[in-house]
Each structure stands twice: as C-alpha cells, then as structure tokens.
Amino acid sequence: MKSTEQVIKELKQEKAELSEKIRKLKKFLGNETLVAQVGKRHAYLLRRQLSPMEDYEFWLEERINDLGEKLEK
Where, if anywhere, are coiled coils annotated (predicted)? Predict the structure, then answer.
C-alpha cells in the first residue's frame, strides 16, 4: 500500500499535468483564428470539455488538502 506522502505526490503531479492542459486549452479557445480552424462543432465540444476538467482539478486539490491535513494530525 502506498504511503500518504506518495499518494499526495502523485496527486500533485496529476494536478500539475491537468492544470497545464487546462491552461493550453484556455489559450487555444482564446485564439479566434485557431478556434475557427477547428470548426464550430469541435470548438463547442472543447468548450464543454473545459468545465469538467476544471471541476476535476478542483477535486484533486481538495483531495490533496484533505490528505495533507491528515498528515499534520
């Protein structure tokens, strides 16, 4: 079984990777020229994908914080 420290480390890595993907997607969606190139339907799908990614990022942070609090006790 993994230690709490190892789980936190892995969660932080996962969150960092996800945060980078979110940053890149937001940058892409902010570029009207690129968005126009992928077409309306695909741009719509990308915009819809962004919100669940941000939700997932939030819950990863909550899990990291929760585990961190348990370590401090």
Answer: 1-28
H or E element in which residue 24 lies: helix 4-29
As a whole number of Å, the CA-based R_g of the chain is 16
Domain residues for 57?
4-72
| Token representation of residue 7 | 């789980």
Q: CA–CA separation, 27 vs 7, rounded Å?
A: 30
> Tell me, what amino acid is at 73?
K
Q: How many domains does the chain have?
A: 1
Residue 43 corresponds to which amino acid? A
Summarize pLDDT for 15-67 with one digit per residue, the tens. Answer: 999 999 999 999 999 999 999 999 999 999 999 999 999 999 999 999 999 99
